[in-house]
Amino acid sequence: MHWEQKYKLDIPVIDAQHKQIISCLSDLVEAMREGCSSRDIEELFTRIELYTVRHFGLEEKYMAESNYPGLEKQRQAHQFFVSRFGRVVDEYKESGMSSAVVNNLRQELTEWIKNHVTGLDREFGEYFRHYQKELPGFPG
C-alpha cells in the first residue's frame, strides 16, 4: 500500500498523518514478507498502534470542535480498527509469522485504511474544509 492522491483530504496535518500510517503499514507488510526479526516486527506494531491512536484522537478532536455530525460513526470505525489491529498483533504473538497473519494484515487492515480514508474521512474532509472557511484560523 502506498500513498495516492485519492487519499488526500486537503487538511495538511491529517494528510501527513495518513501518509505516515500508510507508510508504516507498508513497512510492516514488507518486514513480514522479508522475514525480519520478531523484535523489528513488534517495534513496527507498537509504532503503528501508538501513531494510529494519536491520529484518531486528533481527527476526533477536530470533529468535536467543528461539531461534525458523523463523529460517533468515526469513533466506532476507529475503535474497530484498533480492536482488529490488536487481534492481528495477538495472532502474531501466538502463532508467529504465518501466511494468515500477513494476509489479515494486508487484506483486512490495509483495505480498511483505504476504504476509511476514501469514505468516512473524505466526508469529514469536505465538511471540515467548509467549516474552516466559516471560521478562518481554525487549525488544520
List its traits.
about 0% strand; Four Helix Bundle (Hemerythrin (Met), subunit A); 4 helices; mainly alpha; about 140 residues
Give a description of the structure.
It is a single chain. The two termini are 25 Å apart. 80% of the residues lie in helices and 0% in strands. 17% of the residues are buried. The mean pLDDT is 89. Helix 1 (12-34) runs antiparallel to helix 4 (99-134), helix 2 packs antiparallel against helix 3 (71-95) and helix 3 (71-95) runs antiparallel to helix 4 (99-134). It has a single domain (11-134), classed as Four Helix Bundle (Hemerythrin (Met), subunit A) (Up-down Bundle). It is an all-alpha fold and 140 residues long. It has 4 helices and no strands.
Strand content: under 5%
Write down how many β-strands occur, each being a DSSP E stretch of 2 or more residues: 0
What is the CATH class?
Answer: Mainly Alpha
- The secondary structure category is mainly alpha
**Unreliable stretches:** none
Q: How many structurally independent domains?
A: 1
Arithmetic mean of pLDDT: 89
- Which series of helices and strands comes N to C? HHHH
Give the oligomeric state: single chain
- Helix fraction, binned, reads over 70%
Gap from first CA to last CA: 25 Å
CATH homologous superfamily heading: Hemerythrin-like
Second CATH tier, the architecture: Up-down Bundle
Radius of gyration: 16 Å
- CATH fold node name: Four Helix Bundle (Hemerythrin (Met), subunit A)
Shape: elongated
